[in-house]
Give the backbone structure.
Amino acid sequence: MKNKSNTFRSIVLGVGTSLPKNIVTNKDLTMKMDTSEEWIESRTGIKERRIASDGETTSSLGTEAAQIAINNSGLKNSDIDLIILATSTPDNTFPASATVIQASLGIEKGYAYDMQAVCSGFVFALEAADNAIKAGNVKNVLVIGSETFSRILDWDDRGTCVLFGDGAGALVLSSSKEETDRGILSNHLHSDGRYGNLLYVDGGPSTSSQVGFLRMNGHGVFKHAVKKLSSVINEALDHNELTVDEIDWFVPHQANIRILEAVAKKVGLHKDKVIITLQKHANTSAASIPLALYDAVESGKIKKGDLVLLEAMGGGFSWGSTLIRW
Ligand SMILES: CC(C)(COP(=O)(O)OP(=O)(O)OC[C@H]1O[C@@H](n2cnc3c(N)ncnc32)[C@H](O)[C@@H]1OP(=O)(O)O)[C@@H](O)C(=O)NCCC(=O)NCCS
């Protein structure tokens, strides 16, 4: 679909990432808790994750990823008009960590805010960025997913703490009025608060004055994730009048290899088209999609002109997809 009407398209100009230095393998975890390498890898596909050290924060990782994305885009920091940071682990309750990143990047104009949709945060942030571009409000947008989930994990709960990791990824979008088939083609977002008790943090400023820890009903999340991700993929395909075979790359939120395989089977997509990085990053929530995107771009898999479908599901529940002609 070419952009023939006189409207704006959101084109991807650059991607960047940042990971904490500290690698924690499944074997490392067996020294600290009653678990096994075999249990973690066979149940989830995860082999290792990065864990932030003192001084590594959501904003510091986000700033580094953002700077790499801007450098790769060919723009200057001062060209950025809007920063949206998808995170559930901000540095502080406020100010928005997006504004901390804005200041760290030396950007003094435009606006910046945090987007909280847990593991779906990155696709929610892309939709907001795309809408701001399409409305003609902004030219260049930095969309960041950055998380330090290790700080809200209960390290005595082996059922959850082995599943998550820290990291950040960023993407620069720029508006174009040119006749092009590139850019964001569709966004489909959903949430259903009835399922909040299946995946949540048991604290917060207004309830406990504490940050709290992540709690999860693994079986419940698994069942809904397969159903909701399959349905949101089909929704995007139907909306764009595409078949599953016409998509070049699927870049899912990286939670669990068994969820990704079950979705692939249900939707009928080829496993080789699914970008998988969870073995080295674990579940990094809102950062997982841009981390996977960066990997796929740097390794030469995703190329200009490819059709790329992003999809995510997380706490809330929230879920959604973004279709991009790269
Ligand atoms: C969490 C998850 C991996 C658990 O896998 P599972 O096959 O459902 O495992 P179960 O919950 O049935 O647990 C089986 C056993 O393993 C044990 N177990 C849990 N964590 C363990 C660990 N880290 N190491 C060893 N054993 C563990 C449980 O105590 C249970 O023991 P029991 O049978 O003696 O009671 C799986 O449910 C899942 O991936 N859910 C989705 C989670 C997710 O993706 N969340 C984020 C979405 S954004």
Q: What stands out?
A: The first strand starts at residue 9 and ends at 18. The longest helix spans residues 218-239. The CA atoms of residues 244 and 269 lie 6 Å apart.
